[in-house]
Structure formats: structure tokens, C-alpha cells
Amino acid sequence: MLGICVIGSGRAGLIHARNFAAGRIAGARLVALVEPVAEARQKACQELELDTAYADHAQALADPRVDAVIVATPTTFHRAIVVAAAQAGKHILCEKPMATNARECDEMIAAAEAARVTLQIGFMRRFDAGFLADKQRVDAGEIGQVVLVKSLTHGPTTPKPWMYDIRTSLGPLAEVNSHDIDSLRWFTGSEFEEVYAIGGNYRSPDARQQYPDFYDNVILCARMQNGMQGSISGAQGVKYGYDARCEILGEKGLITVGSLAANSVVTHTADGSQAAVVQSWRNLFLDAYRAEDEDFVRCILENRAPRAGGPDGKAAVLVVNAGNQSIAERRPVRLGERVG
Amino acid sequence: MLGICVIGSGRAGLIHARNFAAGRIAGARLVALVEPVAEARQKACQELELDTAYADHAQALADPRVDAVIVATPTTFHRAIVVAAAQAGKHILCEKPMATNARECDEMIAAAEAARVTLQIGFMRRFDAGFLADKQRVDAGEIGQVVLVKSLTHGPTTPKPWMYDIRTSLGPLAEVNSHDIDSLRWFTGSEFEEVYAIGGNYRSPDARQQYPDFYDNVILCARMQNGMQGSISGAQGVKYGYDARCEILGEKGLITVGSLAANSVVTHTADGSQAAVVQSWRNLFLDAYRAEDEDFVRCILENRAPRAGGPDGKAAVLVVNAGNQSIAERRPVRLGERVG
Amino acid sequence: MLGICVIGSGRAGLIHARNFAAGRIAGARLVALVEPVAEARQKACQELELDTAYADHAQALADPRVDAVIVATPTTFHRAIVVAAAQAGKHILCEKPMATNARECDEMIAAAEAARVTLQIGFMRRFDAGFLADKQRVDAGEIGQVVLVKSLTHGPTTPKPWMYDIRTSLGPLAEVNSHDIDSLRWFTGSEFEEVYAIGGNYRSPDARQQYPDFYDNVILCARMQNGMQGSISGAQGVKYGYDARCEILGEKGLITVGSLAANSVVTHTADGSQAAVVQSWRNLFLDAYRAEDEDFVRCILENRAPRAGGPDGKAAVLVVNAGNQSIAERRPVRLGERVG
Amino acid sequence: MLGICVIGSGRAGLIHARNFAAGRIAGARLVALVEPVAEARQKACQELELDTAYADHAQALADPRVDAVIVATPTTFHRAIVVAAAQAGKHILCEKPMATNARECDEMIAAAEAARVTLQIGFMRRFDAGFLADKQRVDAGEIGQVVLVKSLTHGPTTPKPWMYDIRTSLGPLAEVNSHDIDSLRWFTGSEFEEVYAIGGNYRSPDARQQYPDFYDNVILCARMQNGMQGSISGAQGVKYGYDARCEILGEKGLITVGSLAANSVVTHTADGSQAAVVQSWRNLFLDAYRAEDEDFVRCILENRAPRAGGPDGKAAVLVVNAGNQSIAERRPVRLGERVG
After folding, report:
1. Chain-centroid distance, C-alpha D148
2. What is the pLDDT at residue D340?
């Protein structure tokens, strides 16, 4: 039985922690939690009926019962924790975005390789039943060669103040659109060549004065290395719900995936038809997180490569950086271009 | 150019009149209107830019410019007008329900046959693009042998006081569900054998005291002669819109037709997703009415039988009568049974 | 920690067994299984990583680690097992249909009451997120007073030979439509007064000769005691998927629940739009089964009445019996009528 | 009664011609047609039951029965014909794209103003019921301030050889996306400030050698002058149907308009759910073309400005030119920038 430690008890961290605590993931159990804030730590332990919790990840990495860690802290801590975890011989599932830049990613990948531990990145859409069915249909040639992939993520959550500084948070392209970036790579089977992005702050008046370059809405056009096209939109603080949809245009057809409908109930009255909208990625992708956690455990036990590994995480970080540069400099940015 | 006279300027009458007045129907033009109420007559003439209007249908039948009539009066007048029109050599498109009982229908059919004029009944769903596509798919064997046809019509209009007496109005089974009855015959390719119906007055408190047997909501189960099953529901005064949907269950699949969506616009806000509902059969079946009018003209000009003729009208009236008897006597009623 | 024993390792039994074996249900664990067929028993134990399995339920009832049983055997065994379980002081979740007739139901209810154990009936749609949202909207008055409830269940599974004898199996009204019957009671808040049903065998040629009264397709009209109307359709062996939808017509609107879409993926090609259909109630209601199992455990621990208890099970059995009698005698049958 | 002459008997020309020939447009009638190709001219006259047809537009402009012209020729002829028509005192409805560059547009606008004739541009989506409902909801503030407008048009028609030279045809941005460009202006209430576009040839192998800069697929990101964002995609020769959808993201919600469903019929079988896809803009926007023609006539009769006039046509041409330049130069292009 693999012992799992979740580092960070924010929203994503708790999803993973609940999966492992409830015994939903065969072959693994939650044995510890890391959370620096005492109050949040106690609350999480209580909910998870967990005895062991640490304030510092170093303590967890020294705990021999811990075989693997889930890293769900703010992005700036990812590199240090992942490298330390690898050096301690722990397997790692690291949430997206992998890190703040390519150099950090390289260090993390190198550390995991040196220690021969599994390093998986949290692109859980690759485990979602809908996205998987979509991918199967694309791969089966139902729409011929792919021409254009469009992917959007709009989230209801208002950006938190620490996100305002996009030098450290990397902005919505990282927080919200990392998944879309990964989907474009996944569905086109290609790396990004060049991106052009436009960002703007429409719903976050608090950030305007101090962080004039903060954006809560972004569109991005991409040229893929294999000549395919890509288009992404991202939004934070939309009021209507959580929206994650993707369209893949091929030579012979179009595949659409994603829906705003929270359930199948529709009320028809004199005011028209009314239906509930998905309110959170936590509802929408709950099964995907579970499948991701299951596969993480199986990758470790069967000693095979994860569906999304370090290079996938790094590739997304590169696109985020290029996108942010494009927004700032108002010009298309090539991937691998020397960043000013 | 066929000269058309519309008899009755209610809602259905005006739809036909507008089609012919606007020149939308090749080979025919509106030449006259019959409406006994002076005010309604003048209003209709003005809207239709029409010179000729009569208070009595006998005048219209004497007008040599009139080649064909559209009968859109209350049901009780259908027999007399249709028989007179046939005797005057006019072709006839008679709105549903054809008449109040089978004997009247027989007289109308006989008169049209004797005069060798076209007698078409206003089952315009047989001309609707959706229902036609549905029928084509059924006939192409896409779902195998038909097992069960379910059809519903719910209308927003509150029943008018003259409908309260179901002996003369025949009730919602006639006013609302004639189309569903015709659809069951059309999709099963069979006559009705036996029906069982339940009716109730849920939204028409004004009728309760004087017309205790009035119903504004009805469900009906049918056994078809060829062994297939049928199910109908009807409702008047529903607040949410106009609802006409049909489902055909076959041995190998299911076909659904009909939608509540008035257009493709959906607004997603914190209150959920919201869309407009179809508000009237006039919007929903506008193209079907036009196709029906066009085919009526072509049937006359090409001297061929209409898609829905007198026997189709009579068959539906028989089902209405049996259904009403079933509601009253709380037992299944066989078609052709001696009516008490 | 409640010890759970699942009796019967058919499809429904395994769903419950998997829930408890995987630790998905807080406060309870699977401790034993009863399955008379050795091969099936071993296969189930292997899948569930379970040590203890019995060939006979009496052995399980004697096992002190068993606190509660899930009864998922063929209907004919329900009475004997439930009564014995109650007498052994075990709490009971009994699958639908509860039993073959009202007398059996009464014995089961009496035994549970005498032993003061929980007796819950497996109407898991009451735990489905969609149906619950539907019920909330109805109860909140969004569509005013209910007028008509329509509910359908069409299943892909071909009837098994033992179902052909409807005297013991009770036919599709029990196997397939028990849930719809329960939904009509739930949404109208009323008992059934009278039903009329039509059945036919359309897809089961094997049964025709020996079981001429077997039906694999049924429609049923109902009059509820409070004057509301109900309509049900049931089908076995439909090829297209698993179909469970419900519509509630109120004075002021309509609520629809249920969808055929298996996921949100749609492929658009020259052949049109194509989407996957739900293939099994096991997929559709997996979360509902889990919520049902969770509530069963909580009802026991908190000593409160289950959402669907013995009287709910009995009420559905009465409707099934009346419906079958109506099909056989081709007349409406009142509930509580002396059964011939 | 206004006399209408349609210039050009291609697909768009025939739609207008049929509207006016059939008398569907109150206050106007088709009196003549201009088509240089004899065979096409005769065929059109026959279909339209029209006596008068000219090989040259100059002849039509000299015909005193002609009060207004519909210009539906290839784009390169628009300027000359519109200017001549204005000078002849004829009112003008000119199809999109208005012309090949801004200077031509200016000449056309000036000529119409000098002659005091109506000059309307064929942005018929502004007359579509769905897009109008969408606009109403936006203007009513249902989603707050607009943030981002996304609009796509994918058409099934393979590009014709004359379109391969984008210097004269202006490419798909003009042929296909003129409507999307207009929608962005309409829904944002703003002019374009800067665009960035990516084009590629994915389905037109014939064009590759001789016209390496031809593209049949394009994505475009836009910065509007008022700070809003815009995103467009265009495709020619998609196999699956005609696809025109738009999404408007506001501060408080999202509005979607457009649907791929050709009708409401869905077949569910063992192969899944299957529905027909809209096959042509001619089906989808038939009512919009009629409403556009009606409004054109009313604008003339009531002497009021058209819903989409010369400046709207010019604005779209400017965006097309900037987009094509962006594709060629792989950089964002500001509107009004000196074109190389």
C-alpha cells in the first residue's frame, strides 16, 4: 500500500487528499498532509480523519511512511519541493502549472530522472471521459487530419490578490489555461511554434492601479510546429459558472466536447427554459481527478511513464511565458525565442 | 391562377389568408374572405389589402372568381359549408377537426366525391420539415418495425368559453390533439382499434360549475389495429409555450422530433442558462402551413389526391369521439363501437 | 463500522458490493456475500477481494459481523430473506420490486417493525442528482400544482427466460417500471387510484409460444387519488441504450429530466451529428446507488426512517399487480380492487 | 411598387431574385436581371418567370422600370456598378464584401450620398431572428459590459479557382468572415483597433503550387478600440455542413447563438444518436435574407438609413485587408496603418 502525502490544502490539494483518504484509490492511502497555516491544517486533518500533518514539506519527506507526494502549493514553491521530494526518493504528482519557467522545469525533470522516481503533471483533462472519447475519435480518424483546435476555460472564481503579480503567478494563462495549452498539444500531436495573445483586465478593478499589466481575460492564437492552428480563451471571475469546452476542426468534420449543463433538469415556464450551469471544475472533473490519482499509483506500481510527465509540464510553461510576453509586447512570440 | 376564398378569419384562417394574399403560393391568389362579424371582416380585409369580403359563405360560393375555399370556421359549421362548397364545384381545404361525428364526415366525403372536387384536411404536420424527416427515417427502416408512437401537444391558449361544452366543441382531444391522432395513424400506418383516456380540468376554474365534464388536460392510450401502441397527451392553457413533440420507438431504435427552443440563443448567467420557448403553433408551423397550401393548389392543378383527405379527417374524428366517451365512461372504448 | 452482507451477486448486487468493498461508504464495510452458484460466488469474491462468502443467506444471518444486508436476489425470494433477516436483527436494504404481492410486503414490513430494524427499498432515483433537483423545483412551486407526470424507462437488456412467466417475475412493469411508479408517487405526492395498461411482445419471439401473455413493451395511464394524471412507458430489449426520462407538467410550467447523451462529445461529419447514448443504468445511476448506500448506513446510525421504506415498496407492488391485471383483462383496474 | 433589378445570378443573387420574384417583399417586384453568361441568364429567367434580362448592368441602369438594384457580382465589380447605379439614381443593396479596399468604398459612399440614394450592405445576420434576439439581450444588459465576442463561420463549399488569388478575391476573410467581422462591430459597438491572423491551406491542394499564399482556414484575434476583445475563425470546404455560431462573453454572463442542428429530428440506435447538420447558409439564413430585402425596400420608401450602410461595409473591408496583411507579414496590423 503506497503511502501518500498531499502538500498544500487548497482546493486542488483537498480533492486529491479526499480521494486517497476515502480509500477510493486502490493500492494507496493518505498518510500525511503538509500545510503551513495551522488553522487550515487542523481543519483539513479533521475533515480527512487524518492523524499526521506537517507544517513543512521537509518533515513529510523525512517520514518513511510517505512513498509519494502530491504537490498542490502555489506555483513558486513547485521547483524546490519537487526537487527535494525526488532527492528523498518520493514519487511526485505535481499540479499545473509545473513551475514559473523552463529552467525550473528542467531542474525538476533532472531530479526525478536522477532519482528514478515518477514525475507526473496534473493535466487531469487527459483522464476525463469526455476528453478521452474526443481524443479516441480524433485518433480514429473520424474527422481526418486536424486543422484547428479551439479550447476555452472560463472560471467563476475571482482572482486572488496574490495572482495580480503575473511575474510570480504567471496570470490566467497559467492558472486557468494550462489545461487548454495541454489539450492543444494533445489533440494536434505537436509542439507550439508561435503564439499571439491579447489580455485585458475587465472584472478586477482592485488590481488596476498597482498591477496595470494584470489581465483576467485572454485570447491566444497559436501556430503549431506541424502547421495546425490553435485558439484559446481564458477568463477569471465570470459569473455564470465553470466553462471548459473544446472544438476540434478536421479536414472532414468537427468534434465538440464540453457542456455548460450541470444536470439534465430543465424548467420551462412563462420566463422561458431554465437550466443549471456547472459551477466548478471540482464538480465537472471530479471523476477525472480520481482517474488521474489512480493512474499515478498504477504508474508507480507498474513502473511506467505517466500520461503527462515533466516534458508536458515544461511545454505548457513555455507557452504560458511566450503568451505573457506576447501580451506585454503586443507581438507574436516564437517558442524558444530568447526572452527579453 | 386559382382564386382562393378563406372562410373564417380566426387564427388559422388568417394564416392561410396571408399565405395566399402575399403571393407566396404559386398558382393561386386570395380573391375573397368570409367572416360574419363585420369588425373582424374589415380588419382582415385591411391587413390583407383585400377588396372582396362576404358575411356569408353562400355569397362566396356564388362568386365565379372563387375556385377553392379554405374552411376555418368553428367545427360545427364544417359539414354544411363543405357540402355546399362541393355542390358549388369548389375545391376544399377543411381545417381539423373535420366535423363533430362520423356521419357528418361521410356526408362531406360523399359530396366532394360526387362533385369531383379536392377535399383536403388541415393536418399540416404532414408538411412540416421535421415530421417529414421523421417519417422518412421511419419508412427507411432506421428503427425497424414501429412499436410505440408517443405524441403530445400542449398549447398556451386558455380554452375559450364556447369550448367548454364538449358535445359541440369535442374538447381538447379535437382542438389540440387532432394532429397527434393523425400522427399516430401516419407513423404506425394503422387505424386505431381501441382507446382509453383520462381527462381533467386543472386550469379552467370558470368552466367547473356549469361544465363539470370539461377537461383541459388529457392522456390517452391506444391499441392500433396492427398491434402497435400509441400514447397521446394534450393540454390547454399551459403557461410555458407551445409544445408539440413526438417519439417513435421501434424494434431497433428511437426517433424524437420537436423542440421547445424558439431559437438558438441561450443566455448563461448566475441564474443559470436561459432560453426562449416556442410561443405559438403559428410560429412553429408557419412553413408547414405554407407547404400545405402549396400542395393543396398542386393537388387541384395536377388532379391528384391530397396527402390528408376526407377519410383521414374522419378517422381522427372517430378517435376523438371514442376518447371523449372513454373519459366519460371511464373504460376503454373500441373504435366503431355503438356509441351510447 | 457497520458490517454489510450483500445477498445476490447479480448486476444490482455487485453495484452495492463494490460500493461497500471499496470503502466508498463511510461507516460501513462489506464483510460477506451470499451467492448460491459456486462459480459466481468465487468470481465475485475475487473481484471484491473478499474472504467470506456463503451459499445460503441463513449462514450470513448467523454471522455476528453482519449488521445489515442488501437483498438483491430474484423477487420471489425477497419475502423469505427479508423476514429472516429482520428476525435475526439485521437492517435491510431490499431491491425493487419489494415482493410479488401486497401480502408479502405486509409480512416484511411487520417483521422489520417487530425487530425495530431499518427496512429500505431500492428506489435509487430518489438519490439521483437530477431527479432530486427536479423534485426540489417541483416542491419550490416553480411549475405550480402538478397536473401530469410522465415517466419512461427503456432498457437495452433482452428479457431473461425466467422473466417470461409474469406470474413470478411480474413482468417489465416490475423489473423496469418500478422506478417510474415510484417517481409518480414521489412527484404527485399521492397514491394511485386506478390504472389502465396495454402490453405487447414485440422483440422477444422466443417467449411467444409458451408465454403468450408475456409483454416486453407497456404503456400505462394512471389516475392518482388527488386527481393528478400519470403516464408510464416501459420497454425491454431496446437496442439503442438505456433511457430514463421524466416530465412533470404543472399548472404553470413543465420540468424535464433525463438525457440520452452518454457524454458531451459530438462528432459532426458529412453523415450528420453523432453522439454516444447512455448504455446502462449502471453508468447512469452509479452516483445514485452510492448516495443510496450512504443514506442507508446513515439511517441506521442515526436511527431515522429511510427515504423509501416498506410502504413505498408495497405501493409500487400494488400498482404493478393492478397494471398486469389491466393488461390481462383489458380494462382499467382500481388499486385495492379484489384481485380475481 | 418599386422595380428591382438583381445584378449577378450566383447563389446570393438568386436568393434575392427569388424573394422579389415571388412577391414575398411587399412594395417591390423583380423587373429585371443582369447576368453576362447567356446560359445562366436564360436559366435564371426561366426559374424566375422573368421576361427582362440584360447582359450588361449599364442596360439595366438605363431601364426606367428599375428603381433599385441588388449587386451580387464578384467583388471586383462592386465599385464600378455601385457608382454607376448611384449616378443613375438607383437605390443599391450591395452584397459583402463591399469592395476590395477602402478607397473603392469611399467612392461608392460618396456616389450614393451625392445622388441621395440608399446604399445598403448585405450583412443579413443583422436581420436573423437569432442574432437579433442575441443583440437585444446584450443591449438589455443581461450579461453586463461585453468583454469578448467570438464568431465563427465554416462553410461546406470548396473554394472556387478564382478565389485562389487573394489579391482580387480577398480570401476567406472576405468571402466567409465578412459577417463575423460585422458581428464583432455590432456586438461590441466599437471599431477594430488591431488584428492578428493566421491562415493556412489545409483542404485545397490544387491551389498550393500556384497560389502559395492562399488559405482556406483562418483564425483572427482582435483588439477593439473600446478595449474589448474579438476572435474569429473561418473555414472553407469543411465537409460537415454550414456552421455559423457566435458567443458573447460579458462581465456577468455568456450568450451563445447558432446551432448545427438542421431540424429537431434525432435518431437513437445502436450506433448512437444521429441528427442532420445545417447544409447551407441558404437554408439557415433564408428568413434573414427576406427580412433584409424587406427592410431595404422600407428604407427606400420611408427614406431612412439602412441597418448596415456604406461605412459598415468599408469597416469590414478594412479588417479584411488588415487580416490578410497580418497573415502575410506574420505580425499584428493596426487598422488605418499605411498598407505596404
Report:
1. 22
2. 46
